[in-house]
Design brief:
The chain is α/β, with parallel strands linked by helices. The protein is built from 21 helices and 28 strands. The strands form seven sheets. A six-stranded mixed sheet has the order 7-5-3-2-1-12, with helices on one face. A six-stranded parallel sheet has the order 22-16-15-14-13-23. Strands 24-25-26-28-27 form a five-stranded mixed β-barrel. It starts with a strand and ends in a 10-residue tail after the last strand.
C-alpha cells in the first residue's frame, strides 16, 4: 500500500512552505510480495519525481516505509529479508530519502530490511523493539554475516550489527582515536582497554533508548504515523491508499538466439507498440541470447533506458536464462530489474572476445555507461566494466577509513591498514581465475546485488505478484517471416532457387522472370541474416557481388574451361555462408564451424543444377510459363549453321542484328536467326555485323564499320 500527498480539487499535490514530498508504503510481510512492492515503489517514486520537476520543487523526496502497516510483529526469514533489502537499497542510492518506521517489533531478518533504509524512525513504547534476529545462543553463518556487513559497512557500527548475529559478543566504547571506522563502539577482543557498554549485552532486542544510544536512531521518537509525518515535514493530511492499480497490463517480449539486426529491429518495434498501447510493465524474456555488434546492441540498450524514463515511463524486467551470454548482458543492464535463471551468468564475454578482440574497449565503455545509468559511482563503474573484459584483473569490495563502500583493485597500492576489505568479486571461484568477470546467481558470486534468482520463468511471474496476468506480445507478420527465413532449410531452398534462376537467366538472356526471382531470393537471404551495420555483412555482400560479376564474365566475355565461372560460384556461396555464420573465422575450430555452415549451401548448388534441368526439359511446355516468358520460337535454340557452312567457314560472314546486342542477342546471318555475342560493345538493332570468332555454342560478332563513299575527281 502507498500514500500520496494531499490532492487539491484540480488533481495536483498541495504542499505548504517548507514541506517535503513523499509516498508511504506498507512493507511486505512475505517473499512472494517483494516484487510487487519493488515495482509499485519504483513506479510511484518516478511519478513523484516527474511531478516535482514539473512543479519546480527542489526539496527532499521521501519514501516512508511502515513496517507495521499490517501487523505489530514484523518477522522475515533470511531469503525474504535479503530480497526486501535489495529492493530498498537501490531506492536509497537513487537519491530518495528512504525512512523506515518501526512502531512495533521487528524481528528476524526484518532487521536487515530496516537497516537498508537511509534512516530509522522508532517508537518509544514498550512494544517497540528492533531485534532479536536469532533466538538466544544461535549465531549467523558466514553468508549472513557477509550480507549484513555489505549492507551496513560505512553506515552503521559493525560491532553493533554483529552483536545481533554473534552470541556473547562484548560491546565496548572505543578509546578516542582508535579504530578504522568513525563509530564510537567496537568489540572487546579488538579494544580490550575499552569501557564495557553496560545493560545491552544481555538484550537480544533493542528498545528506542538502546538503539538511539548505539547510533541506530538519529532523532526523536515516532510513536504513531502522524508523528512520523511531522518529523519528516510531510503534510498531515497524507494518508495511505491501495496501490494495486499501479502495475497493470504487463506484457512479455520474447527474444531468442543471436542478436541479428533484424531481431533488434523487432525489439524496437515491440517497444514502440508497448508505448503506443500504454503498457506500464514490460518483461523481456531472453533465451540463449548472444552475439551482435557492440554499437548496435548498445544503441538498443539506450532505447531500453529511455523506455523507463520520462512521464510515460514503462518499467522493464529482464529474465536471463542460463544459455544467454556476452551482449545479452548489455540489454539486461538497461532494464530496471534483472532476474537470472539458476546457473546463468551475467557477462561471460570470453568467447566473444576471442572472436572479436578489437571490441574490448567498446564493450568496456558501453558497460561503464550502463552501470553509471544504474547510479553506480563512476570509479566503481569503471573498475567493474574493466573486470568484464580484462581476464587478469582482480576486484574486491573495499572501504577506506570512514569512507563509502566501493570497489578496489586487489593489488592496488592503497590496500593496507587504511582499507577495510570485503568479499572478492573477481575471481569469485578458482575456476574463474584469469577469466573475464561472470556474475553468477549464487549469493557469494554476485555481491553486487544487481540480479535476483528464479528457478524458471513461471516462478518469476509468480514471485512478481502481478495483479493481472502478463500478456505475450504478438508476433507481427514481418517478424514471423524473418524467423521462417533464418531456418537453415529455408535458406538452402532459397539458394537452390536463386542459383537455378541465375543460371537460367544467363543461359536465356531476356527472359526476365528468372532474374527477378533470383534477385528476390538473395535479397531475402541477406536481409534475414543481416546485422545492418556489421562490417562482416559488407564483406559478404562484396563476395556475393564479385561472384556474380565473375559468372557474368564467364558467360559473356571469356568463354573457356570455366575456371572464372567456378570461382564466381564459390564466391557467391562463400558470401552467403559468411553472412549466415556472422564473422570471419579466426581459428581452425571456427573454420570447421564455417565449413559446416557452408556445406548445406554448397549442396544447394547440385539442387540448382537439377532444377535447371527440370526447367529446360519440362517448364517451357507449360502454357502458363509460356505466356509469362518471352518465347523466341522463330530463332534457333542451338547454333544451327546455314546450309553448306561449318563453324569455321562462318567466320567473316556478315549479317544484320535483329535485336540490340547487350552484348548478347540475335542476328540474321545467311538467312538464319542465330544467338550471337559481341566482345563487350553495344550494337543497336539493325546494325550490320560480321562474325569474327566461332567457339560453339558461342558466335562472336562485331559491328561493320562502313567506309565513307569515294567522291569522283
Amino acid at each position: 500500500m502507498c500514500c500520496l500527498a494531499m490532492i487539491s480539487a484540480g488533481g495536483k499535490p498541495v504542499f505548504g512552505a517548507g514541506e517535503s514530498r513523499g509516498l508511504i508504503f506498507d512493507v511486505p510481510t512475505g517473499l512472494n510480495q517483494v516484487e510487487a512492492f519493488r515495482n509499485e515503489t519504483r513506479i510511484g517514486l518516478e511519478k513523484l519525481r516527474q511531478t516535482a520537476r514539473q512543479d519546480g520543487f527542489n526539496g527532499p523526496l521521501i519514501l516512508l516505509l511502515d513496517f507495521h502497516g499490517k501487523s505489530k510483529d514484523f518477522n522475515l526469514e533470511f531469503e525474504a529479508g535479503i530480497a526486501l533489502s535489495r529492493a530498498i537499497e537501490p531506492l536509497r542510492n537513487d537519491g530518495f530519502r528512504v525512512v523506515g518506521l518501526v512502531h512495533g517489533q521487528v524481528r528476524g531478518h526484518g532487521v536487515l530490511a530496516a537497516l537498508s533504509c537511509s534512516e530509522i524512525l522508532m517508537c518509544n513504547q514498550p512494544d517497540g523493539e528492533l531485534g532479536p534476529i536469532y533466538p538466544e545462543g544461535v549465531s549467523g553463518d558466514a553468508t549472513v554475516l557477509s550480507e549484513y556487513r555489505r549492507l551496513t559497512l560505512g553506515r552503521f557500527s559493525q560491532a553493533v550489527v554483529r552483536r545481533w548475529l554473534i552470541p556473547g559478543l562484548e560491546l565496548v566504547e572505543k578509546p578516542a582515536g582508535q579504530g578504522a571506522d568513525p563509530f564510537p563502539f567496537g568489540e572487546k577482543k579488538e579494544f580490550p582497554q575499552g569501557q564495557m557498554v553496560g545493560g545491552i549485552r544481555e538484550k537480544l532486542g533493542l528498545s528506542f533508548a538502546d538503539a538511539k544510544f548505539l547510533g541506530l536512531i538519529p532523532g526523536d521518537a515516532a510513536n504513531t504515523l502522524p508523528d512520523a509525518l511531522r518529523i519528516l515535514s510531510l503534510p498531515p493530511q497524507t494518508a495511505k491508499e491501495t496501490s494495486n492499480k499501479t502495475v497493470t497490463r504487463p506484457v512479455i517480449i520474447e527474444v531468442e538466439g543471436q542478436l541479428s539486426g533484424v531481431k533488434m529491429e523487432r525489439i524496437k518495434r515491440a517497444l514502440a507498440r508497448c508505448r503506443g498501447e500504454a503498457r506500464e510493465l514490460l518483461i523481456l524474456k531472453m533465451q540463449s541470447v548472444h552475439g551482435g555488434t557492440v554499437n548496435q546492441v548498445y544503441g538498443l540498450a539506450q532505447e531500453l533506458l529511455a523506455f523507463s524514463r520520462g512521464p510515460d515511463a514503462i518499467r522493464s524486467i529482464v529474465w536471463f536464462d542460463k544459455d544467454c551470454s556476452d551482449m545479452a548482458t548489455m540489454l539486461a543492464l538497461a532494464c530496471d530489474q534483472i532476474w537470472l535463471q539458476d546457473g546463468a551468468k551475467l557477462g561471460n564475454f570470453e568467447e566473444y572476445l576471442i572472436q572479436e578482440p578489437q571490441s574490448s574497449t567498446a564493450i568496456k565503455e558501453s558497460i561503464k555507461s550502463l552501470l553509471t545509468e544504474r547510479k553506480m559511482p563512476e570509479n566503481d563503474a569503471d573498475l567493474l566494466s574493466r573486470a568484464f573484459v580484462e581476464p587478469g584483473l582482480r576486484l574486491q569490495w573495499a572501504k577506506e577509513s570512514g569512507g563509502k563502500l566501493s570497489f578496489a583493485l586487489w593489488d592496488s597500492s592503497k590496500m593496507g591498514k587504511a582499507m577495510d576489505l570485503g568479499p572478492m568479486i573477481k575471481p569469485s571461484s578458482p575456476e574463474d581465475e584469469n577469466r573475464p568477470l561472470r556474475l553468477t546467481t549464487s549469493l557469494g558470486a554476485d555481491p553486487l546485488g544487481i540480479a535476483q534468482i528464479s528457478r524458471d520463468f513461471p516462478e518469476l511471474i509468480e514471485r512478481i505478484g502481478l495483479p493481472l496476468p502478463p500478456q505475450k506480445m504478438g508476433t507481427e507478420w514481418l517478424d514471423g517471416m524473418a524467423d521462417f527465413l533464418t531456418l537453415t532449410s529455408t535458406q538452402v531452398i532459397l539458394v537452390i532457387l536463386g542459383m537455378a534462376c541465375l543460371i537460367i537467366e544467363t543461359m536465356k538472356p531476356g527472359l526476365g522472370l528468372p532474374g527477378v526471382v533470383a534477385s528476390l531470393c538473395f535479397v531475402l537471404i541477406f536481409w534475414s541474416n543481416s546485422h545492418i551495420q556489421g562490417q562482416i555483412d559488407w564483406l559478404a555482400v562484396l563476395f556475393f557481388l564479385l561472384g556474380i560479376m565473375l559468372v557474368m564474365v564467364e558467360v559473356f566475355l571469356i568463354p573457356g574451361v570455366g575456371i572464372v565461372g567456378l570461382s564466381g560460384v564459390l564466391m557467391i556461396l562463400g558470401g552467403i555462408a559468411l553472412v549466415a555464420y556472422g564473422h570471419w573465422p579466426q581459428s581452425s575450430g571456427e573454420w570447421v564451424g564455417f565449413a559446416k555452415v557452408l556445406l548445406p549451401f554448397a549442396g544447394s548448388l547440385l539442387g540448382s543444377l537439377i532444377l535447371v534441368g527440370i526447367f529446360i526439359h519440362f517448364v517451357p511446355n507449360l502454357p502458363l510459363i509460356n505466356n509469362i516468358m518471352i518465347k523466341r520460337s522463330k530463332y534457333s535454340e542451338e547454333p544451327v549453321f546455314p546450309f553448306g557452312t561449318t563453324s569455321q567457314s562462318l567466320v567473316g560472314k556478315e549479317g544484320v542484328a535483329q535485336t540490340d546486342l547487350r552484348p548478347s542477342g540475335t542476328a540474321l546471318i545467311l538467312g538464319e536467326y542465330l544467338d550471337v555475342l559481341t566482345d563487350g560493345e553495344f550494337i543497336p538493332q539493325g546494325s550490320s555485323i560480321q562474325v569474327v570468332e566461332v567457339n560453339p555454342p558461342r558466335i562472336i560478332v562485331r559491328a561493320v564499320v562502313e567506309s565513307p563513299p569515294t567522291l569522283p575527281l
